[in-house]
Fold each of these.
Amino acid sequence: MTIASVGAVTTTLILVGAFLALMLNLNQVAGNIEEDVEIKALVEVTADEAQVDDIRQQIENIPEVASVDYSSKEEELNGLIESMGEQGETWEMFEQDNPLNDAFVIKTADPLDTFDVASEIEEFDNIQEVNYGEDVVQNLFRFNKYARNIGLALIIGLVFTAIFLISNTIKITIMARSKEIGIMKLVGATNAFIRWPFFIEGLLLGVLGSVIPIAAILSGYYYLDTNVSQLITFDFVSLMPFNPFAWQLSLIILGIGAVIGVWGSVMSVRKFLKV
Amino acid sequence: MIDMQGVYKTYPNGVTALNGIDVRIEQGEFVYVVGPSGAGKSTFIKMIFREEKPTKGTVIVNNHKLHDLKWKRVPYLRRNIGVVYQDFKLLPKMTVFENVAFALEVIEETPKVIRKRVMEVLDQVGLKNKARFIPDELSGGEQQRVAIARAIVNHPQLVIADEPTGNLDPETSWEIMKILEEINAAGTTILMATHSKEIVNTIKKRVIAIEDGLVVRDEHRGEYGYEI
């Protein structure tokens, strides 16, 4: 029974650790992408300089907007040519007759306001089109949300299972010692005095159960960090660095293990102390 | 010392054990509680060290109002009451010394005090040379003496004995009674539930008879009064 409850804590904590690592990394990626989200508002080709200034004024007046950069169509073309690398040269022939628009690049203070701000700008005069990485961003947010909710539900379920198993283990120890407890109460032991050995036992079970998960997290994350992160080439996707992330995660796991153990013991002792 | 007024006790299963008990016991008294099985003797005794709470009425022991004593305070009440049972209630894996020391460890005495006081009290019950034995190696009378030693080790003002001689042969019973009388002579109140006609009629003390949850007789230097 002791092995069973330590095993339950171990299993729980391995899964908790894996989910936490996944969720925190997803959060980080989402955060990176959020930071990169910008709105590009294309100005009508027909707009004259005064109208462009007018648009800038209007955009700057939106309270959620953090920064506005103007990028002329020449700058846009240069950016395009650079980003295309070798093939960019073919675009150089457009330098004489540039088909691109002048554009404003806008960042919002809170990335979540992107959608509202974009649709507001779309309504302005002399704006041809407003672009932002709508689909990608929203899909990622949605996926992240589902992953977080499912992970959370699983973690809570597992934690309660582990608490239940630990409290059962301790109940068995208590029943084996119920005569002793009865005599303790008879000669005037306080509940705190009776409780602390079981408290320690629960704590030990929980901490013991977190040893293997911590080892697994440290070695597993070290492996990911050294091998897998090199394979990721997108600059907005990066793993949290092993140090300090894996250590912090281990500490959290140890804490959860201890809490599970203590909670389990407190739950089962409580019933025996009434009378 | 003990003051019960209009005490009623009905258990959750509907059984009424006490039906309006009025009893006063003074410090230093030696009192027998007699009566047929199931008459309420055990409940009466459990009231005094707050193993049961009265349904109605007041129970005052050692100036503690037990009828509304918070259960957090119960341990402190019990440290002033020694309890001795028919079945001794010793821990089988502990030595005689450890069994007695247990009562002092629980109240967090220092090891030095414990050692001194336990040997003192084992000497008092005549078991000083058996301190390292475990209960199974002792006779019934000796085990009961260990239980008595544990009950008096922290100088309680009251000792409750629930049929302390119930499992013992007559000769051993007299030894136990002698020890209880000595404890009483030193000023400790003793309340003893018993079925032994011989003891009650030989060592004359106050007798409280309980039947159907009521005190039917309360006499100083009384008789057992039942034929078995």
Amino acid sequence: MTMNYINNASLLKRQLVVRFARLMFAGELKNKIDLLPLHQAPRNSEAVRCCVHHDRAVIRYRLIALLGFAIENEKPDDEARTLSSYVEEAEARGLERMAGSALTVIDEACSACIRANYRVTNACRGCVARPCMMNCPKNCISFENGQAHIDEKACISCGICAKVCPYHSIVFQPIPCEQACPVNAIVQDKNGKQDIIAEKCINCGKCLQACPFGAIMERSEIYEILRAITNPAEATVALIAPSIVGQFNTSLGKLVTALRKLGFDHVVEVAWGADLAAQKETAELIERLEHGQTCMTSSCCPAYVDAVNKHISNIKPLVSDTLSPMQYAGEWAGQQWPGARRVFVGPCIAKRAEAKASPHIENTLTYEELGSVFIAAGVDVAECEESRADLEATSVGRKFAVSGGVSTAIKNAASAAGHNVTDKVIDGLDAKSLAMLKAIEKVVKPGTFVEVMSCEGGCINGPGVISNPTVARRFLEKMLQEHP
Amino acid sequence: MAKKFKITICSGTTCYVLGGAHLMMLAEALPADLKDQVEIIDSNCIKACQYENALPPFVQINDYLMAQASVAKVVEYLRKH
């Protein structure tokens, strides 16, 4: 399970976003962005990689991704470009530069994990039986200095050697990003560095969470968002996802005030859109079942919808046509405040791709980014007054943040309308659950609503969260008890 | 009876975002023999981040202010004292 354990790579990234946002708030990004790699990795500091220069090179690429660019598009001479020239380009080109996948790989940070998944450890005793060598189908094990040695180029990672070793001295060592990717969209190039195949990628963000080197970055929209909220002439709306409860160890009301302090003019609970989506989806389900369809799946998780489109298109007719809560809330905000920039604030990277294709949302920001922006602006959320969002939701929509929330809402609404519906929750996408989804009509009994969440545990375990999902769930449950 | 350790976890936004969120798991992570000796307080900003070059997240254990705190570091400290 990909879980949000505390991890130095993500903390360093948050620190960098704080520095970036401070410069933006001071109006000095273009003048001073080239100093940020030096400030984040000062000359006499202890390097994380081989030396501070390598650290700085990686930080430079992180800043390029923070400005929204795909690092894959870098031309050879661009290595000599200043970061301020990237700021100028971001300023001039707008969101047009964001075309393509929402994720990007920093080759400079990718450690080019060893292709062969099996390694011989020092526990090897160089025995006489040598079952590893005798049973290797590729003949790629030899003995050097009394220990087995695997030829990485010839090894096909079948695992037989590890299975037959009497001393358990051969270990399985995965390539974390590849192992985490549910759709084989990240592969090694000829230099061993990872590439994301945009046609396959569903932007779920699992590779980003899994990479121990922090080599995978989301292409951020923070530049556009900070520019808009610091511009008094531009109206902005923060559309906060249901999973925001529990991300800042404080109440929703204080968070609403904190967002207004940052410069957002309006705050809308996306859970309101979830309330609406639950109603529409229930009506759609009942109608479809009456027309003889066996089952219908949810459509709120964009990584899942993308997985259907790109990998299991045979079940496309089973996916609900109901829009996601984000889109309903965005549509409402567009009618309420025409022309305002609508910023979805959530845990999700796939939402960025969904928003790009939607007329109802302009930008997306993750909780991690929001947290760093609060620090840069000197806004302490817990010390804010309580205030109310411009549009509030009920507990039905607020439960969409955790696995089972969507299906519970729909089962209850269907039952209130006199229909008995069975529910099934697919909690987390991986190769196995995708195979099951492919044949879902044969798996579930007729009359089933299938909820699919790409992240195990639901949105509270998304790639852009701050809180440990256990803590976030505790908060959400507490809030639902207080505001049933 | 007063507990041996009074642990104040700073939940100011700076600490919380820069690693403090995981300190919310401290109560669950405490070994059984230490549980009875510890009182955990979840506090608003304790203002430790306002010094130059401050290293959040912060935890106050009795009189000792721990910078760059983690669950593992807190447990180790409790064991030694």
